[in-house]
Amino acid sequence: METAAKATAIAVSGDLAFVGESDTLFQIVHVSDPGTPEVLGSLEASDTILDIAVDGGSVYLLTDGLHDGNTLSIVDITNPSAPVIVGTYHASDTPYSVAVSGGVAYLGVGHGIETVDVSNATSPQLLGYLSVGGHVVDIALSGAYAYLATMYAGFVIVDVSDPGQPRKLGWCTTAWNTVGVEVAGAAAYLIDQEEGLSVLDVSDPMAPKLLDVYPVHRPPTGAFTTGLVFRHRHGTGISGTAPPPLRKTRYTPTLIPGRTVSR
User: Fold this and answer.
1) Which fold does the domain 7-257 belong to in CATH?
2) Where does residue 256 rank: exposed (0-12), middle (13-18), buried (19+ CB within 10 A)?
3) pTM for the model
């Protein structure tokens, strides 16, 4: 599917893909047939869309601060053909990433993360902040932990059992150009634009360790969903394709459904 401008972010949930474009356009796309995606609805965001998260009947758009501050916009998608912004939150610093679970949004801003109560979509409120020493470019949530892919600070695990007081646990060094993270069970998967796919053992959140690296030519950018990779290309458009082949070594990676892995 061709888009009007460069696609900057994508998230997938069920049969719907949520696409952000560099000219502030947000689109909801029906992708039950990946070969013929169909636009259902759209709206204009305040600025360029940097990241997108989906939780229940809401989509969370993280935008840069060129025109309206560093903004998290909460979009009601109950009717996918007519999405509407119902609430906004202004981050304290330059935003990079967003993940949402259980009524709490986790924002990668500046050199750390902000936790925001979004249980009332019309009035989101800051809960807490944690500095981790690097730009948080992607966030994966699992149980009581947030797993952070950062630029300059490596891979970081944060205890978010109390969202008001996030606490840094373990970390390990990674390639500086890591752009995405996902977690399944005791394994974390990091996408790096130079090295490819790294697999880490996170069974001990105090001491994550690298298990293996899978070199991947031009690692995918976009969102994984049930057997397909939806890519937001460096040009204009998105496409649904099978995931790339990976070199089999000591650890077998598994496909993770419905998560954005890089921008």
Assistant:
1) Methylamine Dehydrogenase; Chain H (2.130.10)
2) middle
3) 0.82
